[in-house]
# Entry
Amino acid sequence: MNALDLLRFASLALRGHRLRTILTLLGMSIGVGAVILLTALGEGARAYVTNEFMALGSNLLIVLPGKTETTGNAPILGGTTRPLTLQDCEAIQRRSRRVRRLAPLSVGSARVGNGEKRREVTVLGSTPELLSVRHLEVGTGRFLPDVGIDRGAAVAVIGRTVKEELFGSENPLGRPIRIGDWRFRVVGVLAGKGQSLGLDMDDVVIVPVASSMRLFNQASLFRILIEVGAHSEIDAARLDVLNVLKERHEGEEDVTILTQDSVLGAFNRILGALTLALAGIAAVSLSVAGIGIMNVMLVSVSERTPEVGLLKALGATRRRILQVFLVEAVLLSTAGGLLGLLVGYLGSAILSQAFPALQTHPPTWAVAAAVIVSLAAGALFGVLPARRAARLDPVIALAGR
Amino acid sequence: MIELRGLTRHYKVGDQTVQALQAVSLTIPDGDYLALMGPSGSGKSTLLHLLGCLDRPTSGSYILDGHEVGSLPENDLAAIRSRKIGFVFQFFHLVPRLTAAGNVELPMILAGIRPVERRARVAKALAAVGLTDRAAHRPDQLSGGQRQRVAIARATVMGPSILLADEPTGNLDRASGREIIELIERMNRDGLTVVVVTHDPEVGGRARRILKLVDGRIASDGEPA
# Structure
């Protein structure tokens, strides 16, 4: 009995019980499909976060007040740390040649209004450099004017959503808005950028940093964003910045400097773990499907006991009977696995279509693992029923007992 | 040539021992046509299974074509079943999902015979039982007599020297039964050794020799009256 005959015999047996075969295939394909889809989702999330960070440029340093040893987690704000000031920014800019651009950032939340229309909006304070450091684009008008880092100006650049909510179809350029109790003049509208690192850049108002610190009565900056000349200089630049700030803060290292890599690394680890967890959950359904195969094969063996007796009477050895049933189980699980691949890929394609931001690509390792596991499941869960069949006494089997 | 010497078969059923066959000695020359008769439980089927190498004797010897086969390992018995013995059963034992041709092909597939040769032999075997036009039919599309003829084609396609038939007419009407017996007799005339287990005196009466078993022993052995 060659491999082709075995396959043909097995597939005929499977086709003989169409419904049962389809249901078993369904179980297997759901298991494999779940592994592929869920890991694709996890990987998609990872790719999404990586892209978000990369969109900011890979040579970005983020300085925040306060000291933490960890990377990626924001330190608890407030408390006894020294403030991060605009003078700090100037000192860094002046003293490190590796710093290409620098944008201070202060953040607050205020009610922004145009006449009767009001909206609670995140207000960012920064300098013209923010435009290139955060890769923003101006839709109409212009960005913040260069008035000097420590001088305020009553001008504002607004996000698209803010523009639509407060001005509708009117042209906002040159029009006054209220931010808190202050009056600002709109000089520009941002081009749509959407979500960026958890902040909806369409729903912000950007004003000069000195103005916003006064507006919110802040002594410290929220962040300093520093763009380094080249990715290779990022570690040296980090040291430069640290030294400048240490010197200015009386020898104390009371700031945290995050590099893109460290933040990204932390996210990668978290999301990698998430992907594995999802794969684990999916693996449960895969093993349930494997047990389903065993169940079906056991039923099949007990139903086909007389057939086993016949095969033995016709000269089949134990080994041959074992092969016949094992091939059937592996065929079942492999077909289910392939179907699952299809389901998984189809599902992830649909997800990608539905959520374009989340590009789901099933990771190669998960696809390989799912296929191998489905093959192995057939072999593993097929062994018991196949051995049972092979060991049947031909006389008893023929009698159908 | 089959030679049995003091062949005994005991079964354990619970803690009781059933003596299905006791010291049966028998010679069946090549080309013989033997009917095994006797009441239920007399050991007919047990003897047939031993002759067919589906079962092994508890003691005694079974010499087939000069070789002791009673104590051979399972794989060797399987090989003997494949090459030397054809079985025909009361309930046909056709594989329902295979066509008539597929059922006849089965022993050759198990024996690893090449597809080209298989097809030729299937055609020949089906022609010999008059079912060439039913080759593509599945068992449920065939009458009882036709099914048994497929079974006979299957039993003989490997060119065995012995045909063992267990109540081959037991599930058929008289006309079909007679056709089956005539078919088996024709094969016997062509040199096949035939052993038929039967309750039917008419079937037994047509054999060259009747062996009557009672309680696992040979009660009589001779030509039909």
